[in-house]
Structure formats: C-alpha cells, structure tokens
Amino acid sequence: MIGLMQTDEKTGREKPLLRAYSIASPSWDDELEFYSIKVQDGPLTSRLQHIQPGDALIMRPKPVGTLVHDALLPGKRIWFFATGTGFAPFASLLRDPQTYHDYDEVIVTHTCREVGELAYGATLIEEIRADEMLAELIGEGFADKLRYYPTTTREESPKMGRITDLMRSGDVFEDLGVDPITPEQDRAMVCGNLAFNLEIKDLLEGYGLREGANSEPREYVVEKAFLD
Ligand code: A2P
Q1: Which has fewest Cβ within 10 Å: 51, 148, 163, 204?
Q2: Integer Cα distance of 187 and 222 in angstroms
Q3: 224 confidence band (pLDDT: 50, 70, 90)
C-alpha cells in the first residue's frame, strides 16, 4: 500500500489515502519502483503524478501478494500474462535471478488498448536485454530465455487482439513457435483487470493447470491489477 496524506472534508483531520500497488523493482534493488496510471480526477493518482523529490509518501511496511515463485511447482516454461499496469509485478520478476534459474523459457505477454501503454514494458525489456550488471548477476545469456509478446486491442500495432483470443485461436503459440500450454511443462502468473483474470483462469484450467498458493504450490497464480 502506498499513498499520501489528505484532509478529511468533514472533520478537517489529516488521514492517509492509500492504494494497493505492485512493487515493480526487483527484490535485490535498493530503490523501490512503482508503475501507475494517471487518473486525472482520481483521488490519489491526480496528486501522485505531481510529487517531487523530497515530498513525503506513505508506504505500509508489509507487502502481500500471490505472484511469488514459491507458489508454483517446478516447470520448464513460465508465462507472465499482463494487461495494462498489471505489467508491474513482472517488471520485478523479469529482473529476478530466480525466474531464470527456475525456468528454461520466460514468456511475457502484455495486452493494452493502445501502443503508448506498452512503452514502459517494451523499454524495460530492451533495458533488461542490454543490462550488463544483470547479466553478471543472473548469468551471461540469461536474456536469451526471455520472450516478449505485446498486443494491442484498440490501436493498430504489429500484433492485435486480446491475448485470450490469441490463445484460443492458437496464434500466440504459432507466433512464438512453442507447444500449447500443458500442466507438465508450463507455469503461469497472471495480473490484469478482473474480467481478463477470470477469462484467463478459465483458459488455464482448460489446459489442465491448477491455481497454486504458497501453502500449496501448483501450476498458476493470479493477482488483480490495481484499479478495476
Ligand atoms: P479491450 O480493448 O478489447 O477491452 P483495461 O484498460 O480496460 O484494463 O484493458 C486493458 C486490456 O485488457 C485491453 O487491451 C482490453 O481489451 C483487455 N481486456 C479487457 N478485458 C479482457 C478479457 N476479459 N480478456 C482479455 N483481455 C481483456
């Protein structure tokens, strides 16, 4: 949870205004990074977008969440499925050595309405591929395991369509040259809007994957992206 202090209109008292965010920076980093949309009249993001170095930000000390490696059984390939700002937790995991240690292949899909919304993820992927410190930390050639599959739904781009439709049609597997998802080989983490999460859960269950938890690791995990 991060946020700012705000004045309560009725009582005039200062109180915290907090929202759940994913930490986008990797766990080894000494800086914390967050990725947010800007809602022009949103109570928090209308102000958050204007904060300056030196301003105070509230952060609750205890992080919670389901997108953790320990909730998954070992597998060959991991899929990160994101829509919109749901990319944030994967921005962290894509820079986590364990991701590449645990899997032979790491596929990240990102579906957004417009091309501009893909920019943060696309830039990050490029930076990861070129990052010499990461190569030293994770192992030379780690980025060869990384596949990136961006799609848009409302603006023209090289790949259009909802990832769920592209899975149903088989396009995504054909484009990437990989076998369709199986519970033996594939693991998945999902983070997006509520409708997307529900639809992709259905698809993954259809492939035979089961939802895992820290107490009972299985084949996939889901987290709701902020602001549904
Ligand atoms: P679409 O434009 O077809 O609704 P949002 O900005 O509303 O959170 O959506 C982010 C992306 O997720 C959009 O590209 C949107 O596609 C897509 N999306 C929304 N609902 C679903 C769903 N049920 N299954 C797959 N993709 C979805």
Answers
A1: 51
A2: 12
A3: confident
Segment 137-169, tens digit of pLDDT? 999 999 999 999 999 999 999 999 999 999 999
Pairwise CA distance, residues 93 & 189, whole Å: 10
Distance 161 CA to ligand 1 centre (A): 9
pTM equals: 0.95
Provide the token pair at 149: 């599959």
> Any idea of the CA torsion for 210, 73, 125, 59, to the nearest 10 degrees?
80
Is the C-beta atom of 196 inside 6 A of ligand 1? yes
Task: Report whether residue 162 contacts ligand 1, using a CB cutoff of 6 Å.
Answer: yes
Residue with tokens 């070992």: 74
Strands 58-59, 2-7: pairing is: antiparallel
Residue 181 CA to residue 72 CA, distance in Å, equals 15
Using alpha carbons, select from 227, 85, 79 the residue that is nearest to residue 166: 79
User: How is 55-117 classified by DSSP, letter by letter?
Assistant: ---EE-S----S--GGGB---SEEEEEEEGGGGHHHHHHTT-HHHHHH-SEEEEEEEESSGGG
The rounded Å distance from CA 9 to ligand 1 centre is: 35
- Closest C-alpha among 189, 92, 89, 99 to residue 138: 99
134 with 95: CB under 8 angstroms?
Answer: yes
Runs of H (alpha helix) within the chain: 45-48, 88-93, 97-102, 119-130, 132-138, 163-169, 171-176, 194-206
Q: How far is CA 84 from CA 110, 113, 203, in A?
A: 7, 8, 19
